[in-house]
């Protein structure tokens, strides 16, 4: 019984990035969110627009994506991606225009950003043991370097580098990246 109580107290965060207006892959990601039984959804930018350098993703429909995401507005924490604009904010019922956000989770500070302003080459002022979480590259990343955890869930709609469509799960002292089918791609223990 005690284990079940502890399980209910643990918070799980579903992390996704780079939706780029794909209603198809957003629906797949939200199926995974429900299956994971996560409490919150963290979106690392590029919700609605595909951007001029990207191909059109499957079932490109920014209006439908906005409508779907607005159903989860009380569960979403989001930051602005390089393809997000004030027009996108007018469609969404949760804030997206901050270049970064800070979340405190399990005695850790998580610096959340898209990755086009702050990046692995241009880290913000964070401390050893902190977490730098970003999107933008469409590449799944989970490692520690110089005492800072670097985490990127990849892209749910337009993965790059031969990777699969993916999302992240942050729970307790653990972060993993999963395919939309739920297979673990990368994982790391956060000490």
TrEMBL record:
<dbReference type="Pfam" id="PF12850">
    <property type="entry name" value="Metallophos_2"/>
</dbReference>
<dbReference type="InterPro" id="IPR041802">
    <property type="entry name" value="MPP_YfcE"/>
</dbReference>
<comment type="similarity">
    <text>Belongs to the metallophosphoesterase superfamily. YfcE family.</text>
</comment>
<dbReference type="GO" id="GO:0046872">
    <property type="term" value="F:metal ion binding"/>
</dbReference>
<dbReference type="InterPro" id="IPR029052">
    <property type="entry name" value="Metallo-depent_PP-like"/>
</dbReference>
<protein>
    <recommendedName>
        <fullName>Phosphoesterase</fullName>
        <ecNumber>3.1.4.-</ecNumber>
    </recommendedName>
</protein>
<keyword id="KW-0479">Metal-binding</keyword>
<dbReference type="InterPro" id="IPR024654">
    <property type="entry name" value="Calcineurin-like_PHP_lpxH"/>
</dbReference>
<feature type="domain" description="Calcineurin-like phosphoesterase">
    <location>
        <begin position="11"/>
        <end position="171"/>
    </location>
</feature>
<dbReference type="InterPro" id="IPR000979">
    <property type="entry name" value="Phosphodiesterase_MJ0936/Vps29"/>
</dbReference>
<dbReference type="GO" id="GO:0016787">
    <property type="term" value="F:hydrolase activity"/>
</dbReference>
């Amino acid at each position: 019984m005690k284990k079940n109580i502890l399980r209910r107290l643990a918070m799980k965060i579903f992390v996704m990035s780079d939706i780029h207006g794909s209603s198809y892959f957003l629906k797949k990601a939200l199926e995974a969110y429900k299956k994971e039984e996560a409490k919150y959804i963290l979106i690392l930018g590029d919700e609605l627009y595909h951007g001029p350098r990207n191909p059109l993703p499957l079932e490109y429909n920014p209006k439908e994506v906005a409508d779907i995401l607005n159903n989860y507005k009380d569960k979403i924490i989001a930051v602005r991606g390089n393809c997000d604009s004030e027009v996108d904010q007018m469609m969404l019922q949760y804030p997206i225009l901050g270049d970064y956000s800070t979340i405190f989770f399990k005695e850790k500070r998580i610096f959340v950003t898209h990755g086009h302003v702050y990046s692995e080459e241009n880290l913000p002022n964070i401390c050893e043991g902190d977490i730098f979480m970003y999107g933008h590259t469409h590449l799944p990343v989970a490692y520690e370097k110089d005492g800072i955890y670097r985490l990127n869930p990849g892209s749910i709609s337009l993965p790059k580098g031969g990777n699969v469509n993916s999302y992240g799960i942050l729970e307790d002292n653990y972060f993993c990246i999963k395919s939309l089918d739920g297979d673990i791609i990368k994982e790391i223990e956060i000490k």
